Amino acid sequence: MGLIEKLSMPMQTINGLLSKLQSPFLLFVRLYVAWVFLKSGMHKIGDWETTLVLFEYEYQVPLLNFELAAYLATFGELVFPIFLIAGLGTRLTAIAISFINIIAVVSYYATLAKGAGLVWHYLYGTMLLVSILYGGGLFSIDHWFKSKFGNDD
């Protein structure tokens, strides 16, 4: 074995380990973001009257009636996280949740910017971007569908 091969062995070991950790990491990212948005949706339906008041007076969702915005946000926060957890349509689902995240920041920016809330939305956006770029990984329905019905290109 030559010098180059000996020097590259540690890097190959590290690359192998990181490759094995990719799918568990993608699962963690999906579960964490889904939990955050699902919990928010549950809070909304838990006190619907307060949700409507917040959407009417506090959140300034552009171009939408406050009631429609409340229904759409709640629907998105309850349905899309389920798909994200399962890894079903991972990339499209992450795009949909990203849209909810962006609307939340735009609508509530004045309040978020005063506190640390904006940082959390950056984190969620970054984690969603990971799901958009890398998909669901091995632990997803997307992977199962691809292995059963897709080609191995």
What do you see in this structure?
This protein is mostly helical and 153 residues long. The protein has one domain (23-149). Helix content is 84%, strand content 0%. It contains 6 helices and no strands. Helix 1 (3-46) crosses helix 3 and helix 3 (66-86) packs across helix 4 (90-114). The mean pLDDT is 91.
What share of the residues does DSSP label as strand, in percent? under 5%
Number of helices: 6
Please report the total strand number as a whole number.
0
Shape: elongated
List segments where confidence is low: pLDDT < 50 over at least 5 consecutive residues. Answer: none
Summarize the amount of helix as a percent range.
over 70%
> What is the number of independent domains?
1
The quaternary structure here is: single chain
Mean pLDDT: 91
Set out the fold topology.
Layout (H helix, E strand, L loop, with lengths): L2 H44 L1 H11 L7 H21 L3 H25 L2 H18 L6 H9 L4
Helix pairs in contact: 1-3, 1-5, 2-3, 3-4, 4-5
In short:
By secondary structure, this protein is mostly helical. It has helices at 3-46, 48-58, 66-86, 90-114, 117-134, 141-149. It contains 6 helices and no strands.
Using brief descriptors, characterize the structure shown.
153 residues, mainly alpha, 6 helices
